[in-house]
């Protein structure tokens, strides 16, 4: 039995219904076969889920009453419950959702001139302990099912439906480390990319990691044509270990070797996410060190003026210093951009809304 169908049975044994959105198209076909149903029903069910975006199995009117009953008996569609949302003056929307077990997660919709992007969460909390991130407050509670990640995109799309707009891209950069939840992540990617699913093109999907080296090799071997980003945040091991404890388990030299392997296997470039923290990693000398580290790689640097987090002590780098950092990299021949800030007037930092609204969940 495949992993996700095994997950379905595990939830059933606990008396908790798994989300139907957890099933990839081939997994759904297998489930239908086990129910004595023809495989073409999978296309019909996917159309109801991802094109018509129904909220109950009873709405699937071209299925038999018996099949609708089987679906309702084994699965749920009611995966996320909206707790609250915040809307920025620039159109950015942050949603705080409650899961079936009472835990909460964040999802963000960002509006760009090229379309609407959704940032999804992969875990309830995070174990990696990055010292600048609100997502790690309270540690890791659990991994999300693939369907709980898919549901975030669906809920964002339902919101977009009200404006007759479409989710055009997805970034896996919300709460949690995606590669710590690798198998559900892979299923999520295949579901939203499937032409009968949400049909979001591979090159409109971005996955980010903090640097879980063994999974980078595994991800490279998948040879997916999606965009790949790495949270780097420092050009040397000492500074990176202070910012990101994951660097102690997978040091910078090992990370860079794994990225060389990724580029070799996929032919795709790596985007380095580099948050600028005042007086920590933002000097011209840091920029020169960074340029030396990545000089010969197929890569791009995305400089991020950090959002201040009340629970953390880091401060924003002044704009003139950001400009100088960018110029230094460009002078060294590095492709670099400064991320356009969004949601600056709401709880925009990853995990910040959850930390404010769910204090009992995010205490250490």
From TrEMBL:
Binding site for [4Fe-4S] cluster: 126, 130, 133
Ranges where the Radical SAM core domain occurs: 112-345
Residues annotated as binding S-adenosyl-L-methionine: 176-177, 208, 231-233, 307
Protein family per UniProt: Belongs to the radical SAM superfamily. RlmN family.
Additional note from the record: Reaction proceeds by a ping-pong mechanism involving intermediate methylation of a conserved cysteine residue.
SUPFAM superfamilies per the UniProt record, alphabetical: Radical SAM enzymes (SSF102114)
Protein name per Swiss-Prot or TrEMBL: Probable dual-specificity RNA methyltransferase RlmN
GO cellular component terms listed in the entry, alphabetical order: cytoplasm
NCBIfam families assigned to the protein according to its UniProt record, in alphabetical order: rRNA_mod_RlmN
Gene: rlmN
Root EC class: transferase
Record keyword tRNA processing present: yes
Gene3D superfamilies in UniProt: 1.10.150.530, Aldolase class I
Alphabetized HAMAP family for the sequence: RNA_methyltr_RlmN
């Amino acid at each position: 039995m495949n992993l996700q169908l095994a997950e379905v049975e595990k939830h059933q044994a606990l008396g908790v219904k798994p989300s139907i959105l957890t099933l990839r198209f081939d997994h759904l076909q297998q489930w239908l076969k086990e129910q004595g149903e023809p495989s073409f029903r999978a296309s019909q069910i996917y159309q109801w889920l991802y094109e018509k975006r129904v909220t109950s199995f009873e709405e699937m009117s071209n299925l038999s009453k018996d099949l609708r009953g089987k679906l309702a008996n084994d699965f749920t569609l009611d995966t996320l419950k909206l707790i609250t949302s915040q809307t920025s003056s620039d159109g950015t929307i942050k949603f705080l959702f409650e899961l079936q077990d009472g835990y909460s997660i964040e999802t963000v919709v960002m509006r760009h001139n090229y379309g609407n992007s959704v940032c999804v969460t992969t875990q309830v909390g995070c174990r990696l302990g990055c010292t600048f991130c609100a997502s790690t407050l309270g540690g890791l509670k659990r991994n999300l099912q693939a369907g709980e990640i898919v549901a975030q995109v669906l809920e964002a799309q339902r919101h977009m439906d009200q404006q007759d707009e479409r989710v055009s891209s997805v970034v896996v950069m919300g709460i949690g480390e995606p590669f710590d939840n690798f198998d559900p992540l892979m299923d999520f990617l295949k579901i939203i990319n499937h032409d009968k699913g949400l049909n979001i093109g591979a090159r409109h999907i971005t996955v980010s990691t903090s640097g879980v080296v063994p999974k980078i090799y595994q991800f490279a071997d998948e040879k997916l044509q999606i965009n790949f980003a790495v949270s780097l945040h420092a050009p040397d091991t000492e500074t990176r270990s202070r910012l990101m404890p994951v660097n102690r388990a997978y040091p910078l030299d090992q990370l860079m070797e794994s990225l060389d392997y990724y580029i070799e296997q996929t032919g795709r470039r790596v985007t380095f996410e580099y948050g600028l923290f005042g007086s920590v990693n933002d000097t011209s000398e840091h920029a020169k060190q960074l340029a030396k580290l990545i000089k010969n790689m197929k890569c791009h640097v995305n400089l991020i003026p950090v959002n201040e987090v009340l629970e953390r002590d880091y401060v924003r780098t002044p704009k003139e210093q950001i400009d100088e950092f960018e110029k230094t990299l460009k002078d060294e021949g590095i492709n670099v951009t400064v991320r356009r800030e969004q949601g600056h007037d709401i709880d925009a930092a990853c995990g910040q809304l959850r930390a404010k609204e769910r204090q009992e969940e995010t205490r250490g």
